[in-house]
Amino acid sequence: MLPPSVAIAAGGNHSLCVLANGTVRAWGKNDSGQCDVPLGLTNVTKVAGGWNHSLALTSNGIVIAWGGNESGQCNVPPSLTNVVEVGAGLGFSVALRSDGTVVAWGNNIYGQCDVPPGLVDVVKIAVGVYHVLALRANGTIVGWGQNDAG
């Protein structure tokens, strides 16, 4: 029997969970390897599912990515540390650092990886197909990326 789950995420056509022992399980469509959890991945606290890729956040603030990488969404910036939250969209990935700043990489067709200059004090992120929302400590929301539907 598996340990209970402590975190979940849904991707394009796949699902992820973090088990209480810090390991990850993935299931669903696996055409890009998005369900092929890297061997030895442990100490995971959070996961995120993109269209065809997956992200895991470890307890030491490091992001691990796997699956489709046609836009560089799995090329985690080498200097990315102190991450507290991750999000994934269609071909791009987003991370929230403990200092309240946001980093995004991968597909930028709608500017979804162009984090607004001066964006600080972020406490939460949410990621859509081609856009990102950031909740700041003062309760304001900042959004960027595709906006053809307002």
Can you give me a brief rundown of this structure?
With about 150 residues, this protein is mostly beta strands.
Structure explained in plain terms:
The protein starts with a strand and ends in a 5-residue tail after the last strand. It has no helices and twelve strands. The radius of gyration is 15 Å and the shape is globular. The chain has strands at residues 5-10, 14-19, 24-28, 44-49, 53-58, 63-67, 83-88, 92-97, 102-106, 122-127, 131-136, 141-145. The protein has one domain (5-145): Methylamine Dehydrogenase, Chain H, CATH 2.130.10.30. The mean pLDDT is 97. It is mainly beta. It has a three-stranded antiparallel sheet with strand order 1-2-3, with no helix packed on it. A three-stranded antiparallel sheet has the order 4-5-6, with no helix packed on it.
